[in-house]
């Protein structure tokens, strides 16, 4: 092997080590938003769990009748069923993200797309809970003020009632979208920027 070949080989090794170190820097850079997302996920899990526990006491706090309490707990059980499914998916993703070595573009992409999926599930859950709350409110109104509600519906058009329900769901939707973007969006953008900056494996 002559001197020129040795020089070429040395240059090739130097380039690959530079590429590796640059890749490692990007991977390390990605860990910061990932750690922030995990921290926020953990906080949100406990906040939602605490909210569900507090909601058990709503009938006592608001002085619901026995009949209304029974209806409330029926809607509460439905809401808990949907939330339990979300918690399961949420927890599975959270624990798997620690099992997976996030040292490559492929694994970072996995985290990014799985987290996006979890954000969409979170939004869907919020819409479902919103519909359940709206359904319970309507049922409670019919039960408590059935006669008044019947008279009211004869005086105003059904279109007005549907429009109010639509506006309520729209407000829930806007708040959900803004909250998801504010809470997780910026970290997901950071991860995507880092992944896009890495070479294809």
From TrEMBL:
Record flagged with keyword Membrane: yes
Sorted UniProt keywords: Membrane, Transmembrane, Transmembrane helix
Keyword Transmembrane: yes
Organism superkingdom: Bacteria
Transmembrane feature ranges: 45-64, 70-88, 124-144, 156-180
Listed name of the protein: Uncharacterized protein
Lineage of the species this protein comes from: Bacteria, Pseudomonadati, Bacteroidota, Sphingobacteriia, Sphingobacteriales
